[in-house]
Amino acid sequence: MNKETTIETLNALKLLGMARALPARLLDARQSDLSHADFVGLLVQDEKMDRDNRRLRRLLKKARLKQEASLENLDYRHPRGLHKQVMLELADPAWIEAGRNVLLTGPTGVGKSYIACALGNMAARAGFQVLYIRASRLFESLACARADGSHLRLTQKYGRNRLLIVDDFLITPLSEAARADFLELIEDRCGTGATVITSQCPTKEWHPNIGDPTIADAICDRLLHHAYKIELRGDSMRKKTR
Question: In the chain, at which residue ranges do the beta strands (DSSP E only) sit?
Fold first, then answer.
């Protein structure tokens, strides 16, 4: 069997990484005098790396992160109350496996969304299914789903993500339906998934701003218990950039 036929067969078997790497590996084998076992081992590594990269691309595409961000590029020089030790702890995805939440609060422009997207990027690279969504879009889509009968399916879709990022929570008052939908979503995720929430509203003011005291009690109890609370402060970093 010649090289071209072998590559066609590998592609037919969906061993795309092996198919792409084979020409270079054949050249290396001639130059390095590789054994058969070493040659096959390298091809298997090429296939695994190719599959890992393709899976990561799928996860990042589905995550719909607002911006490209990484924990490695966080700016600790800007005085905003961001502690490197906390972020180093969050760089370990164990908190996602444990279903813990991260609550990012602070004024506009201090980097809440960037940090949230950086956590989402880290989670996707660790192999977790991630979804980023603005709070207004979340409640709008759930309201539309309630109207057309797909509410349960959409809630389950959001719930399946191991990490859900809700940006700009409580930027506007919650309606009665939004309160009920958010409680249902958080209840479904409790113990099975982690949630990152950004808000300009301090966590101590969430209860009165959610509205209904009973629902607010339930939501705050599930979100705030055993969560990482990162309270940012200071001037907008966008002014610094300009």
Answer: 102-105, 130-134, 163-167, 194-199, 228-231
